[in-house]
């Protein structure tokens, strides 16, 4: 069989993995109708949210050029090794089709199998480094924001684990390690500031990520499940632990995952994005200092001056006015012929005003 390496080792020994019970759980007509209608709906949601996106802001250049830390390299190597072992188990068990499950695809997005970088950092050979190893760009930032909305995968994997079919040594351990890293790595990336995230008040990227995840299930996994009779990520029949049993379970899944995905992504950003908290505190400090420091090119009012500055400016202003008045002051010889001009009266009145300055706010 041409596809024996991908589906040959999958049997119905594990309930609702394949077999007549899972295939007959609901009609194919119902499955195809949901696939077409919901896929069109998710495309519409992604398109409308895409039109409302704010421009992506990249980190400062020094952040982009910063070399990878030992922690980042450790996470990169750990995820690569675990993913390689997991794919080895799939090939050995002739169940490679399960590599299309979202958690494995998410792992590929975070980091590929190995690191082979050419001398030019912008060109990579055969395998590429994403998110953990790639330099922040608008494309990788967009991928990270989409991936951040898919934290429901590792969350549900811990909440409803499925390890019955993992019989090889260390195979169950790779399940727990891989799903743990799928949550730890986004947290590390957020805290490191390598990629910027969407504002907490905006949900456009969150809508795109959630809609894309559901679109992937209905546009790819659902047709493959129908053709092969294999329950890929429970698109053929509901899991035994699913509380929403029955033919409507996929509609219920769309509803509760639409709520869970933004809750997990925004909650993770709120808890671990220390950069946003630093920026907010820095903004408050800047606003406080801006009230105390004068703006360049704007003259301070008397009520903004300290006691020393107040007296110094008072003396300087009085001296300047006295000098100007002495220039225009008539001599004794011309006193009889001198005529007092209105300008001199204005200068005198100004001098009298500055001898007792007020704190009146103009």
Structural description of this entry:
The structure is a single chain. The chain has 362 residues and is an all-alpha fold. It has 14 helices and no strands. Helix 3 runs antiparallel to helix 10 (204-228) and helix 13 (307-328) runs antiparallel to helix 14. It is elongated and about 110 Å long.
Task: List the SSEs and their pairings.
Layout lengths: L3 H4 L12 H4 L4 H24 L9 H4 L5 H23 L9 H9 L27 H11 L3 H8 L11 H22 L11 H25 L20 H24 L1 H19 L14 H22 L13 H14 L7
Helix pairs in contact: 3-10, 5-9, 6-9, 7-10, 8-9, 10-11, 13-14
Q: Brief overview, please?
A:
This protein has 362 residues and is an all-alpha fold.
> How is the biggest beta sheet arranged?
none
Amino-to-carboxy terminus distance: 90 Å
How many DSSP H or I helices?
14
What percent of residues adopt helix (DSSP H or I)? Answer: 55-70%
Which secondary-structure class do the elements indicate? mainly alpha
**Beta-strand content bin:** under 5%
Number of strands: 0
Shape summary: elongated
Order of helices and strands: HHHHHHHHHHHHHH
Query: What is the average per-residue confidence, as pLDDT, rounded to a whole number?
Result: 75
Oligomer: single chain
Radius of gyration: 35 Å
Q: Descriptors for this entry?
A:
14 helices, mainly alpha, 362 residues
């Amino acid at each position: 069989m041409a596809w024996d390496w991908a589906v040959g080792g999958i049997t119905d020994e594990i309930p609702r993995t394949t077999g007549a019970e899972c295939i007959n759980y609901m009609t194919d007509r119902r499955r195809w109708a949901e696939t077409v209608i919901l896929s069109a709906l998710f495309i519409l949601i992604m398109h409308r949210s895409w039109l409302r996106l704010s421009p992506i802001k990249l980190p400062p250049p020094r952040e982009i050029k910063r070399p990878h830390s030992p922690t980042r390299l450790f996470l990169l190597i750990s995820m690569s090794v675990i993913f390689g072992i997991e794919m080895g188990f799939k090939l050995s068990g002739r169940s490679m089709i399960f590599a299309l499950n979202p958690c494995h695809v998410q792992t590929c997005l975070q980091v590929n199998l190995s690191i082979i970088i050419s001398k030019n950092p912008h060109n990579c050979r055969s395998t590429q480094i994403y998110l953990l190893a790639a330099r922040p760009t608008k494309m990788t930032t967009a991928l990270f924001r989409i991936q951040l909305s898919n934290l429901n995968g590792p969350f549900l994997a811990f909440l409803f684990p499925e390890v019955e079919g993992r019989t090889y040594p260390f195979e169950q351990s790779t399940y727990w390690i891989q799903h743990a890293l799928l949550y730890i790595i986004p947290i590390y990336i957020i805290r490191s500031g390598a990629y910027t995230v969407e504002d907490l008040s905006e949900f456009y990227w969150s809508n795109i990520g959630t809609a894309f995840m559901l679109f992937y299930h209905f546009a790819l996994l659902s047709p493959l499940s129908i053709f092969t009779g294999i329950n890929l990520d429970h698109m053929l029949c509901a899991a035994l632990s699913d509380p929403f049993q029955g033919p409507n379970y996929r509609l219920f899944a769309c509803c509760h995952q639409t709520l869970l995905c933004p809750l997990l992504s925004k909650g993770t950003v709120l808890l671990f994005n220390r950069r946003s908290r630093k920026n907010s505190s820095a903004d408050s400090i800047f606003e406080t200092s801006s009230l105390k420091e004068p703006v360049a090119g704007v003259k301070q009012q008397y009520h903004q001056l300290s006691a020393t500055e107040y007296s110094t400016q008072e003396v300087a202003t009085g001296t300047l006015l006295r000098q100007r008045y002495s220039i225009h002051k008539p001599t004794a010889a011309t006193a009889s012929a001198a005529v007092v001009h209105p300008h001199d009266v204005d200068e005198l009145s100004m001098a009298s005003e500055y001898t007792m300055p007020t704190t009146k706010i103009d």
